[in-house]
Amino acid sequence: METLLQGKRIVLGVCGSIAAYKVADLASKLTQAGALVDVILTDAAQRFITPLTFQALTGRPVSTDLWGVGSGLPTHIAHVGLGESAELLVIAPATANTLAKIAHGLADDLLSVTALAARCPLVFAPAMDGGMYEHPATQANVASLRARGAVIIEPVVGRFASGLEGRGRLPETRELLGHLRRVLGQHMGALRGRRVVVTAGGTREALDPVRYLSNHSSGKQGYALAQAALDAGAEVTLISTVAGHLPPPIGVELVSVSSAAEMEAVVLARREVDVLIMAAAVADFRPASAQSYKLKKDQAQPQLELVQNPDILAGVGQMRQQDGWPRVLVGFAAETNDLHTHASAKLERKNADLIVANDLTEPGAGFAGETNRVTFFTRGQAPQPLPLQSKAAVAEQVLAWVAQQFALAKDAPKHYT
Ligand code: C5P
After folding, report:
1. Long-range contacts of residues 306-312, Cβ cutoff 8 Å, at least 24 apart
2. Which residues are 263's β-sheet partners?
3. What is the chain's alpha carbon radius of gyration, rounded to the nearest angstrom?
4. 362: CA distance to ligand 1 center in Å?
5. 391 Cβ inside 6 Å of ligand 1
6. Residue 336: pLDDT over 50
7. Ligand 1 atom nearest residue 309's Cα
8. Is the CB of residue 276 below 6 angstroms from any atom belonging to ligand 1?
9. Is the predicted pLDDT of residue 416 greater than 50, yes or no?
10. Ligand 1 midpoint to CA 405 (Å)
């Protein structure tokens, strides 16, 4: 499991909207990821869902009443403390009424008092029926919250409980979680202010308009790396050959490519980035010429002539000797034999800082699965084998290693807009 949410103090404010049932799932997922979730329900929220639901899911007391007497301190005083100690305050679903109150600094219930006392990032996920979200009054409140630095997770377009259609539905849990991770990462991540490019998936080398040569790479390790870079607060571009097959991490810039040549062009156009992580399984060869029409089986036995693809990583590694771009260069090596010899040779030949190598013949270290067993090969140090773990955990360790390089070099991020 990823570590970003572990031990994080999150206050979840729930308002009175039918979408309140959806955030029970959010509270559960946050808790499962290790966060300490303190839920506050408004009066209206309790018409839709009970405190007991959230208490059971989070294993923590749920607060509803500004004037209650909880564990000694009156609730309105205890919640100033809660607001101050929270690392993230998320209000989901946020109704037009609560948005208006907080935009104007009103504090007449426990949630609005806590929001005023909070010193952490504030995230609102508005959800409301009819045209309420698009009403100029709501939009003005949203704009003023944004101007003060709050993050607004835009509601999605769809069908409302009333039967009307429009913008106002709460996004699904996966999306809400992705936004919360993004906000936490940008607030406290070790790679804040850095730009990271990750490549993912096996390239597809066209034979004709319907067929291609490729490999078994699923892209999962690359997607996990992109998520880990986002968690660390970086701006992330994911150059993917499997864009339609895996859900992209929330907040990533996704560029869909197919062949090695396309991938190379996109990588080389990103010369401003700080870190390049080449996790893609780039095909070493491509058909010498791709036919413009579909090859027919009744044609004479086709002959396949292959030519070598550019080695993107090696090319970047060479350029790097002249201009120092990118600051940190990471490659992957999937081997079936002599892991140490091949991975060490790649570290040199590709002028990389880190080669993440795995032996494909080992159990749990493969293309499609959820786990990986890798060894880090770095300059001047003994190879560092890591245990069998999830691809997400491997990704976190790679990004932690990257962040350490900046820290060791006392290299401060450049500011960008
Ligand atoms: O040489 P090999 O293919 O084993 O090297 C693997 C590493 O090199 C990976 O990081 C892969 O993304 C990169 N690579 C590349 N261009 C190629 C072949 C591999 O960038 N044509």
Report:
1. 308/284, 309/203, 309/205, 309/260, 309/261, 309/282, 309/283, 309/284, 309/285, 310/260, 310/261, 310/264, 311/282, 311/284, 311/350, 312/199, 312/260, 312/263, 312/264, 312/267, 312/278, 312/282
2. none
3. 25
4. 20
5. no
6. yes
7. 21
8. no
9. no
10. 22
The answer on pLDDT for 417 being more than 50 is: no
pLDDT of amino acid 70: 62
Say if ligand 1 is within 6 A of residue 346 CB.
yes
Q: In this predicted structure, what is the pLDDT of residue 414?
A: 62
Active site residue 215: yes
Tell me which amino acid residue 130 is: G
The residue to mutate among 313, 337, 338, 351, having the most atoms of ligand 1 within 8 angstroms of its beta carbon, is 313
**pLDDT number for residue 77:** 75
Q: What is the pTM of this model?
A: 0.94
Q: How far is the CA of 280 from the centre of ligand 1 (A)?
A: 7
What integer pLDDT is reported at residue 364 of this predicted model?
A: 82
Closest atom, ligand 1, to C-alpha of 332? 10
Give the per-residue pLDDT at 71.
60
- Annotated catalytic residue: which of 97, 141, 215, 372? 215
Cα separation, 374 vs 225, whole angstroms = 14
* C-beta 89 within 6 A of ligand 1: no
pLDDT tens track for 192-219:
999 999 999 999 999 999 999 999 999 9
**Cα 86–chain centre separation:** 22
